[in-house]
Amino acid sequence: MLKFYYSGAPNPTKVALFLEEAGLPYDAIPVDTRRGEQHKAEYLAINPNAKVPAIVDGDVVVFDSNAILLYLAEKTGKFLPPNGDKVRGELLSWLMFVASGVGPYSGQSVHFRIYAPEKNEYAINRYAFEAQRHFGILDARLAKRKYMVGETYTIVDMDVWGWSRLIPTVLGEAAWAKFPNLKRLVDEISARPAAQRAVALRDKHTWKTEMDDVARNAMFRHMTEKVA
Ligand SMILES: N[C@@H](CCC(=O)N[C@@H](CS)C(=O)NCC(=O)O)C(=O)O
């Protein structure tokens, strides 16, 4: 059975959404990043980047949520737009836009707003600005169309949902008012039974909740290693 290495964080949750939507049987294996399990040798053999998610599907190993969504969609033929170079170009562009922009800027915005030991106004504003700019681009696209690519719900919408549903954490409680079209898509997906199962998956395991020195040492290793 497909092994899904996960936590309740945004990137694994969008893969959980695909697995639930597609009805693929899977074995959910917890990787408690606050306990440092992402750095264990057996997990690094699967994902050398020491992050979740990753999957092992027979002899196929895939890490990075965006790569996993594309792999699973192509393998199953599900949640892809119709064939054609034009729409394929859109699919790849928006997947990479989420992978290289929405995800990293959202993650850094949360880091500097919530977890950084010093509240650095420049860094907070830099990452919030860029996260907001990226969400604004998604919102503008969704003002003119129901879904991100093609006429139906695809892996790009699942990819977008992963971080967008946490916009209040990324940008503050009032931020949803700026993205009505994106909110419409997020609300539609969040109401789907598969999305509810994806979000509830984390309740099947027990996780370290404290963001204490053990968690900081595992997740924010730059705090103890000066690079430049
Ligand atoms: N580009 C990767 C990013 C993965 C990532 O940053 N995962 C976070 C959870 S959302 C993680 O594992 N954090 C633990 C850590 O940084 O130690 C993806 O989309 O899968």
Report on the architecture of this protein:
The protein has 228 residues and is α+β, with helices and mostly antiparallel strands. Helix content is 54%, strand content 8%. The protein contains ten helices and four strands. The chain has helices spanning 10-22, 41-44, 65-76, 85-115, 121-143, 155-164, 167-171, 180-190, 193-200, 213-219; strands at residues 2-6, 26-30, 54-57, 60-63. Strands 2-1-3-4 form a four-stranded mixed sheet, covered by helices on one side. The model has no long low-confidence stretch (mean pLDDT 97). Bound molecules: glutathione.
Describe the secondary structure blueprint for this structure.
Blueprint: E1 2-6, H1 10-22, E2 26-30, H2 41-44, E3 54-57, E4 60-63, H3 65-76, H4 85-115, H5 121-143, H6 155-164, H7 167-171, H8 180-190, H9 193-200, H10 213-219
Helix pairs in contact: 1-3, 1-6, 1-9, 4-5, 4-6, 5-8, 6-8
Glutathione is lined by residues 9-11, 33, 38, 51-53, 64-66, 103, 107, 219.
